[in-house]
Amino acid sequence: MILQNSKNFINKAGSLPALTDEERLLISRAAELSARCDYSAVASCFLSPREQRILFESGAAAGGFFYGGALGATRRKLVFLPGWIECDNSACDNAFSPEKELQLEELLSSYGCEDMMSEFYVPLHLKCSGYEKLSHRDWLGSLMALGIKRETVGDICFFEGKAYVFAEPKAAAYIENELKRAGRAKVSAEICSLPEDFRIELNYENVSTTVASPRIDGVVRALCNMSRDDAAQLVESGFVELNYFTETEVDAKISGGDIISVRGHGKYIVDSADEQTKKGRVRIAARKLV
Question: I need a labelling partner for 242 at 20 to 30 A (CA). Which of 57, 201, 234, 250 fits?
Fold first, then answer.
């Protein structure tokens, strides 16, 4: 039965663009996970946004939750709850949505199982002994220098000026024991409990512009403040991702909720792309991750 489900997922994923063999294997593993959750919760490794999108679009995430240790995480695991936890999927059947994350937390709380996720997620407080303020890149570099696998580590995030990272239990213990330096700074990591009001803080810059039509080349031109020819060349050269997949068609349509990543120019979340101005142009409201 597991193999049959895996093949169904893979066939359904055939419409997804440019899947690698590793990504198709990821779909198969998700099918196996969903078949193993009768009596206990199961979870994948930490997934990139692209991997989450693949599992969602392929149908392999049906009945599951994407969760990264706290609401709003970017790198998340695919979690399947045990059968004895009754979940109303009709209330929110989009496993990719933030509302589904909230539903997971509420479900666990209603069953008195708030600690169920502790076998999948361990938060660590990242500390720097000096006055130097370390960036996300600094902390990630120091963690990867330890030789741990990227899929065992989730988001590196900041809350009230303090840095935190989510990791699998074995990786968390290793990080706590071995993390000593980040660049030239002396650092340390401590397994911790998150503050009650913890939230993942992301910084955005609001961008508002207008385009003749919501084609991706025009939207990229407007968001990145470049010529249409340059924007079209970026798209055609494979330097633009739409919802984490490379988009090479310049006339691909953009709509609210889309995520556009432009190599060398940043990531943009499109909040709306359907309001028209009095002159018939389309107003684009977006947020750039900074």
Answer: 201
